[in-house]
Amino acid sequence: MKKIIVIMSVLAGVFFTGQSKAQINISINIGSQPEWGPAGYDYVDYYYLPDINAYYNVVTAQYIYLLNNRWHFASTLPGYYRNYNIYNSYKVVVNRKNPYQNNKYDIEHYGKYKGHSPQPMLRDNNAYKAMRNNGNHYGNNRPGNGNNNDRRNTTIVKKEEKKAIKQTNRTIKQDSRGASRTTTSRTQRSR
């Protein structure tokens, strides 16, 4: 009788652990999103680009565009889009499988954004910069890294460093009872 109870409890344990596998699945793909993507999204499957009625697949880093009534997948847009500026265009986040198969829906609902101003981009988001740089203030824009060596980031870093210095000017002072309190050295007078 004891063996039967032990066997039944083991089988029940196996059965219930098999059912509870991966009930919570959280995916964050901030690092794989392109820098021209709109800020504020922690997960993106596709961007719909209403200006050219095309999509961008974040996972595969491919554009999906319509040509001769067929959807084409490519890492770059074709030549007839050479004047299209992805940084200055409006992007719609689409998180559904194969959104191009329901393109009429996107045209109806998001076509009104054609020609709209762009949203704030990831490249301008401080949290995104910190994550991409991994503690390296200059990221990949240092001389010799093969990038355009743009110095705009150094100005941003200097501003960020000034903010950090201002915050470190805060001091912890002990009052006469021994309790600590945080005060700003500029505004607090000594007693």
From TrEMBL:
Domain of life: Bacteria
Keywords: Signal
Region (Disordered): 130-191
Sequence ranges of Low complexity compositional bias: 132-148, 179-191
Signal peptide: 1-22
Comp. bias (Basic and acidic residues): 149-164
Protein's name according to its UniProt entry: Uncharacterized protein
Species in which this protein is naturally found: Arachidicoccus rhizosphaerae
